[in-house]
Amino acid sequence: MGRVTVRRPVRKLTASGQRRRPDALAAEEPLELRVSGKPLAVTMRTPGHDVELAHGFLLSEGVIGSPADIASARYCDSVDDQGRNTYNVLDLALAEGVPEPDTGVERNFYTTSSCGVCGKAALDAVKLRTRFDPSGSPLSVTPHTLAGLPDALREQQRVFATTGGLHAAGLFTADGSLLAVREDVGRHNAVDKVLGWALLQDRLPLHDCGLLVSGRASFELVQKAAMAGIPLLAAVSAPSSLAVELAEENGMTLVGFLRGESMNLYTGDKRIHQS
């Protein structure tokens, strides 16, 4: 799995004794995103699908809305002590006529693996208006379809099966088919990667898809879904109060505690129908 996992020796203690063994860890490395050579953000991520991550990030920030908005993406200016490229700096050039990110919003360039919006200094800049309004989407799914999604997602979590240490996000259709699944140490990075995949496939707006996340439903994940036009977000854990408020404001369906046939419908329950 290359840079996606790292093997380290561990001393394993159990009730029956102890032993030393190698353990696989999910890799975590910084990725600096630049736009036209200017630093925009640094995120801690699991290497892989970096170009998708960058496209999804810029989509969720309202900078781009189609693959044509990006002229190029290239790794640059990042070498280790032996002069080898670390592939930890990605520079994207916007297409002619696409405005650069708003320089009026000051940023703390570092964002942690668990937080997608904490790097923004101005709270007024946190809420973004989507160009792909999800409220009118006719997407409709059954509880039975939703119930089968977490297991289907887990089956495609190749790195989680090895390390047990990654979040996952997946785009799914009304019949429960998973179109794309991405893993990352950061839940918001996993979402950016699947959104970037969809954007690069020219599938936006995603009015006919739902988004499944392996953890909780936070404000930033609802916002990212809204920015892609996704009308339904399902999470295996709890939503936050702001996540519910934002989903309601955007006319989205928010499902939490999706575990087997049990789930909580917080907003937009009209999209969940009995078969």
TrEMBL record:
Superkingdom per UniProt: Bacteria
Q: Does the keyword Cell membrane apply?
A: no
Q: Which GO terms describe its biological process?
A: Mo-molybdopterin cofactor biosynthetic process
Q: State the UniProt keywords alphabetically.
A: Cytoplasm, Molybdenum cofactor biosynthesis, Transferase
Q: Quote the catalytic residue positions.
A: C115
Database matches in InterPro entries: Cytidine_deaminase-like, FdhD
One MF annotation (Gene Ontology) recorded for this entry: sulfurtransferase activity
Major localization listed first in the record, in broad terms = cytoplasm
Provide GO CC annotations from the record: cytoplasm
Region annotation Disordered: where it falls in the sequence: 1-24
Under the heading Gene3D superfamilies, the entry gives: 3.10.20.10, Cytidine Deaminase, domain 2
Question: What is one Pfam family matched by this protein?
Answer: FdhD-NarQ
Subcellular localization is given as:
Cytoplasm
Q: Where is the composition biased (Basic residues)?
A: 1-11
Q: Which PANTHER family match?
A: FORMATE DEHYDROGENASE (PTHR30592), SULFUR CARRIER PROTEIN FDHD (PTHR30592:SF1)
> What is the documented function of this protein?
Required for formate dehydrogenase (FDH) activity. Acts as a sulfur carrier protein that transfers sulfur from IscS to the molybdenum cofactor prior to its insertion into FDH.
- Family per record: Belongs to the FdhD family.
In its UniProt entry, what is this protein called? Sulfur carrier protein FdhD
- In which organism is this protein found? Prauserella muralis
Cite the source lineage.
Bacteria, Bacillati, Actinomycetota, Actinomycetes, Pseudonocardiales
